[in-house]
UniProtKB/TrEMBL annotation:
Protein name: Transposable element P transposase
Domain Transposable element P transposase-like RNase H C-terminal, first and last residues per copy: 231-261
One protein family per Pfam: TNP-like_GBD
Domain Transposable element P transposase-like GTP-binding insertion: 36-157
Positions of the UniProt region annotated as Disordered: 298-317
InterPro entries: TNP-like_GBD, TNP-like_RNaseH_C
PANTHER family: THAP DOMAIN CONTAINING 9, THAP DOMAIN-CONTAINING PROTEIN 6
Length: 496
């Protein structure tokens, strides 16, 4: 949203109401990069309270969302054995100049999980209803970003991440979101901070108008779907990123160097993509043509008579990369996930119940581990549910939540003495099995599969808890070391 770009678009004839221009009888829609809008909005929210109107706060009057609310939630949450906001780190809440450019950090703070945590705490009466305003704002921004990030990878329940079509929720969301965005007022000391809405606020409105315009045009041309993900500049940034890698970190290449680097990139098939650690999501794009067929054995080459338009894995992108990422994604919701204390224990319990019951058809097992009625401990899970109508998460039974809670308390107390031992998992497993009461599973649950269930629960517990404990420990030690280094420097300076 640089002033130069805004000016250029204006000169070309694009406006807020009509975000497109014609050149040589060809229409071009002008869209601001949604990931940048997300970062700008997060940056504004860091510095300013936001006054907004939302249908989700139970009042027609404007309410005020505050970054401090998220900060309070984070500070309490981060010391827990299991966490609601397991993805968040200090950097998320206090981004440095460098990390303020990272889209993922912004997306993880302005997220459904943060909104669900705040709503759950208000719903169970622990926290004042003021926090709902922050939840509503965070959710609104999360939905906006999702609606511009629709593509082929459909996350469970996240319907806005599906492609835009006449049946998708995008158009309906954008109608409501436009009203919401227009109501935003960034405050400083309780008064409006800006004379005009900041560029990123207009940017969202422009993007909504532009996307709707593009969609109308595409429909006339016979298109049934639009991957809204393709309306951002990730592919462009990915390409430039690839070129930069071939420039030897030269951030000011000459034309000749740039052309050579581009050629190298094409020849190696944008091979860097497997390395990860980029700021953009993999855009899923493959080169229309590449030179890999040159190196392929003849019989393989003949199976691909044309090298164009093949969906091939580019060299340097090992197949296993996707697999590891998948495993990581499957595991991560389990690691973290209550009041706050209870919520996180319940969330982890739900995830344990899901894992233990995976592929099990025994009704007695299901009845003893899951719950049909909404327990107060499960309110976070309820808000975390992405769809209002469809249930996709697992709700643990009260007994299971209790047992997991007891086991966590036990592990917290013995981990410091056991962490340095060989086969630590074995030690913890023995301790849990000999201390925690699992008889309820045999008595009121399933006598047939009793032992198998206990074994699975304990295995899930140790596998979730131990790595998380180590992570917490390491973070504490890093912080302590940093503290000591600062003190040392201060001492040296004050002696001079
Ligand atoms: Zn059973």
């Amino acid at each position: 949203m640089g002033a130069n770009n805004v000016k250029a678009l204006k000169l070309l004839g694009a406006s807020k109401r009509k975000p497109f221009f014609r050149f040589h009888n060809q229409e071009t829609a002008t869209v601001y990069d949604p990931p940048h809008l997300l970062k700008c909005t997060r940056n504004l929210f860091l510095k300013h309270d936001v006054q907004l109107k939302s249908e989700h706060v139970g009042t027609q009057l404007p309410v005020i969302a505050k970054w401090d609310h998220i900060l309070k939630l984070y500070e309490i949450d981060k010391t827990r054995p299991f966490r609601l906001l397991y993805r968040l780190t200090d950097t998320h809440l206090n981004p440095t100049a460098q990390s303020s450019m990272n889209v993922r950090l912004a997306a993880q703070v302005m997220s459904h999980t943060v909104a669900a945590s705040l709503n759950a705490l208000v719903a169970t009466g622990g926290w004042s209803s003021e926090y709902m305003a922050t939840a509503a704002f965070v959710e609104e921004v999360d939905n906006l970003f999702d609606s511009f990030n629709g593509g082929t990878s459909v996350g469970r329940g996240k319907t806005l991440r599906c492609p835009l079509s006449d049946n998708s929720p995008h158009i309906e969301l954008w109608k409501k979101a436009s009203m919401g965005i227009k109501s935003w007022i960034f405050l400083k000391d309780g008064k409006p901070a800006f004379l005009h809405p900041p560029p990123s606020q207009n940017g969202w409105l422009i993007d909504i108008t532009a996307a709707q315009h593009v969609w109308r045009t595409l429909k006339e041309a016979g298109f049934e779907y639009l991957h809204t993900q393709n309306l951002n500049q990730d592919p462009l940034e990915n390409t430039f990123g690839a070129i930069r890698l071939n420039c030897g970190s030269n951030n000011n290449p000459t034309v000749g160097q740039f052309v050579n680097a581009l050629k190298t990139s094409i020849i190696s098939g944008l091979a860097f993509r497997g390395l990860g650690e980029t700021n953009c999501e993999d855009d899923g794009a493959t080169l229309l043509d590449n030179l890999q067929s040159l190196f392929r054995a003849p019989e393989t080459a003949s199976r691909y008579p044309s090298t164009s338009h093949d969906k091939e894995t580019p060299a340097g992108m090992p197949e296993s990369f996707h697999v590891t990422q998948q495993v990581h994604m499957d595991m991560s919701p389990a690691v973290p996930a209550g009041e706050m204390e209870v919520f996180s224990v319940a969330y982890v319990s739900g995830s344990i119940a899901r894992q233990v019951l995976h592929g099990v058809s025994c009704d007695a097992c299901k009845t003893c581990l899951t719950s049909e009625v909404l327990l107060s401990a499960n309110v976070f899970i309820y808000f975390k549910e992405c769809s209002d109508t469809e249930q996709s998460l697992t709700y643990p039974s009260e007994k299971l939540v209790e047992t997991v809670g007891t086991a966590v308390t036990l592990m917290e107390s013995i981990m410091t003495e056991a962490a340095h031992l060989n086969s630590v998992e074995q030690h913890i497993t023995t301790a849990i099995k000999s201390t925690v009461d699992f008889e309820w599973i045999r008595c009121s649950g399933c006598s047939l599969h009793h032992q198998r269930i206990v074994d699975s629960i304990v295995r899930c517990l140790t596998r979730i808890y131990i790595p998380w404990w180590c992570k917490r420990r390491n973070r504490m030690m890093t912080e302590a070391a940093r503290q000591r280094a600062t003190e040392r420097k201060m001492k040296i300076l004050s002696h001079q």
